[in-house]
Here is the input.
Amino acid sequence: MRDRSTPALGLAALAAMAVALALGGCGGGASSSSTHGGAAGDGGSPGATRARFVAQATAICRRASAQQQRLKSREQALRKLPEAAATREFVSIVRQAAAISQAADSRLGALPRPPAQASQIAGLVRAYSQQAQDARAIASAAASHQDPTGEAAARALANSIKAHLAAAGRLGMRACFALE
Here is the structure.
């Protein structure tokens, strides 16, 4: 049965989603780094450079950011809707954001990895992937009115965002997240 904490879930989840969309960062959706061409176990791609990886990854990030901006506008309009309609729309928005993130993650994972940064890049891809998983958990919890689960997923998403920002920053990708 649904309890009175539903508005708290809505606010917590909306706040977490707003943060994720405001960052406009690349997300991830793959459940394992083994789906990427530069999996964590390899030593990178000979001839790949950090500068080239960062430039290509930043371009991917900017594209995802532009796509997520459209969702951010829809997310902001949710506050004006009745609760049931807002929940349905919120779930749709989060799922679309996760799909955008998954596409960006696939493109990011396909980039040649410089051998010296292969493990850092694998960490970045893992952090992006976790962010998308957390966003999907929020959507599932909101759809089934599981407030404690949604609140936990919102906290996990905030932690995932911190992790991917740190990983991106270590690679010199800060400019991508400063676009907003």
Remarks:
- The chain has one domain: 6-21+46-177.
- The CA atoms of residues 90 and 175 lie 28 Å apart.
